[in-house]
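User: Structure please.
Assistant: Input sequence and predicted structure:
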Amino acid sequence: MNGWRSPSAYHPGVQSWELTELDSGVRVISERLEHVRSVALGYWIGAGSRDETSANTGISHFIEHLLFKGSEQRSALEIAEIFDGLGAELNAATSREHTLVYTRVPSNHLGTALDVIDDMVFVPLFDELDSEREVVLEEIAMYEDTPQELVHDLISEAVFGSHPLGRPVIGTADVISSVSQESIQEYHGSMYRPDNIVVAAAGDVDHRALVELVRRAEARPLVGLARTSARLPLLSAPDPGLRFQSKDTEQYHVCLGAPGIATSDKRRFVASILDAVLGGSASSRLFQEIREKRGMAYSVYTFASQYTDTGQIGIYLGTREDNLVEALTIAGEQIADIAAGNLTDRELERAKENIKGRVLLSMESTSVHMNRLGKSLITDSEILSFDRIVAEVDAVEAASVCELAASLLAPENLSAAGIGPDEERFLEAVERVTPTLARAA
């Protein structure tokens, strides 16, 4: 396999993950790594922005913040002092399909860390609502002042329209400023259920001991839990959309995007190769053609997200007005060239080695191992061994990459979003890639 060494060569005798489902419905999964003395621990909750309604947009992210503000057992200060005293990091993140509370802790302190996080997740107080509301409103304001980030929300809205996948994870100022404690408690009660939570750990951890820690922590009675609301599936993607926000910026920030590959789709390895070839690395086509050869942009790249029933694929470009039309023209030409079947053996091999190399490097991180386990389980997708991932990447053929580019990134499938001073200039550039979309504006 082109000089590739099996992961077992780096972790002799490594054992695979172990999974236990408790009577409460909580799933506990772990992987023991012999070479470390720490544990990455995460509580994965199947609650994200796609589970929200238009009336409570951003509530998942808001609750993520509020989990740190105190529980029935500990104040916010006590939580911070405990983790500081352990020399551990404590953080959280919200996505479109889940919320994650995680830590990396010395293994001898795993019990303490787990007990505190379990308390935060299951029995938060939601007391300091107004002060944290202001923090989130400041975060939204900061986000809206960062066009290279905000444009990604615009492209999601352009691709998915009114479906919850098109809403911003962070929420909106209107909703966050008015959402009530009652609404927050109701949403928490419906989504933070034991059967909607995965506890994942990787590192110096014994699975049986971990299961016992979780079982002991959840011994507290949990009351008032409603049924989990059904997640709205994406039955079919809406027609491509166009979004533009006028802003007095030095650069135009532009995204082209389309529905992509679901988490369980076997073509996800082909999509990874397409991403690497088109704009996912320093040797990729867009980076070389737009930045290195012509100096038209500082930042240009491709991006991809995978969800349980769909995905998103796209291109980001930040450039000055004088370069906008030509830069997007080049992007369209590169997409069309790959879609036409023009992918060299050298490009394909370099992309494969890039992906496999990143997989190998990730094996040295307990957090990556934990994320792999937790995300796979919370999204009901297959947990692949590193050897299997390498084999799947090696099996990708050039023709499959070109066919996927032609299927996903055909001009008639593309949505577009932009932030900049002049919408007409933006539309002129978009027309070079997807004429139908620009003319319909």
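Residues 242-439 form a domain with the Cytochrome Bc1 Complex; Chain A, domain 1 fold (CATH 3.30.830.10).
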